[in-house]
Amino acid sequence: MKQKLIVGNWKMNGSLAANAALLQALKQGLPADNKAGVAVAAPAVYLAQIQAELAGSAIDVAAQDVSQHEQGAFTGENSAAMLKEFGVRYALVGHSERRQYHGETDAVVALKAQAALAKGITPIVCVGETLQEREAGQTEVVVKRQLAAVIHQVGLCVSELVVAYEPVWAIGTGKTASPEQAQEVHAVLRAQLAAATEKAGRVPLLYGGSMNAVNAAQLLAQADIDGGLVGGAALKAADFLTIIAAAQ
After folding, report:
1. Where are the alpha helices (DSSP H) in the chain?
2. Are 72 and 40 in contact (CB under 8 A)?
3. In sequence order, what are the beta bridge partners of 41?
4. CB atoms within 10 A of CB 23
5. Is this model's pTM higher than 0.90 or not?
6. At what angle do helices 106-118 and 139-154 cross, to 10 degrees?
7. By CB count within 10 A, which of 10, 37, 194, 227 is most buried?
């Protein structure tokens, strides 16, 4: 069976003290025979702390974003090479909050994925529809368009991606797509990947719409759900550990 991957997205939360306490609890609570991949995506200012705290542990470091540029006059940006120096293994690209609040287009997201891959960082490509798009019956069109841009840009490296489906209407709203609704979209994404690479089966498809300690087991039992991109629940050690346990 393919290894599941659970990634905690802290968003703009945390402090030096809170981070240390949370990571200590996660390290202590991780099953000795843990079979799941685990990573935490922290704000960039904390990556040095996270790298130090997680050194020698089974938890990987992730970034919440990466620049499409290598270097230069791009104030506030962090390049893939910079992130790599802090032990970053994964980088989120195209999170719905980046698309919504920072105007990131499909083309920009694709360039970010390519920039991460070029430095040996695995991009977690986020796709998903708004409530308006879902109600208009556009879910499949939207997610396929978003993923197609990345597939076109990265070419033969498609099999090196991680893809996260995050229905925008289910993020931070307490609403969750039913396991069946989530699986339906994951199956569409898997088929799209299969058309692009013979290695589509190795691309982890994560669910990222309010996965929590209560619904994780049901979601992770679906055929094409290979893990989770976890928001609020990732800030609570007990909840995050429960989700990791469901991924064994």
Report:
1. 16-29, 47-54, 80-84, 96-102, 106-118, 131-135, 139-154, 179-196, 216-220, 237-246
2. no
3. 9, 62
4. 20
5. yes
6. 40
7. 227
174-215 pLDDT tens trace: 777 899 999 999 999 999 999 999 999 999 999 998 899 999
Query: Would residue 166 show up in a list of annotated catalytic residues for this protein?
Result: yes
Question: Which backbone phi and psi does 87 adopt, to 5 degrees?
Answer: 75, 20
State residue 7 phi and psi, 5-degree precision. -120, 125
- Can you read off the two tokens belonging to residue 132? 């308006």
Please, what sign has the CA dihedral across residues 218, 222, 228, 232? Answer: negative
Name the DSSP letter for residue 158. G
**With bands split at pLDDT 50, 70 and 90, how would you rate the model's confidence at 74?**
very high
Q: Is 95 a catalytic residue?
A: yes
Go through the chain and tell me how many residues it has: 248
Smallest CA-to-CA distance from 53 within 6, 94, 86 is with: 86
What is the per-residue pLDDT across 19-47, written as a single tens digit (0 to 9) for each?
Answer: 999 999 999 999 999 999 999 999 999 99
Catalytic residue among 104, 160, 166, 186: 166
Residue 24 amino acid letter: Q
Alpha-carbon dihedral 170, 172, 175, 179, rounded to 10 degrees: 60
Q: Which residues of 161-174 are buried (b: 16+ CB within 10 A; e: fewer)?
A: bbbbbbbbbbbeee
Which residue reads 């690479």 in tokens?
Answer: 197
The neighbouring-strand residues paired with 6 are: 38, 228
From the list 53, 95, 129, 160, the catalytic residue is: 95
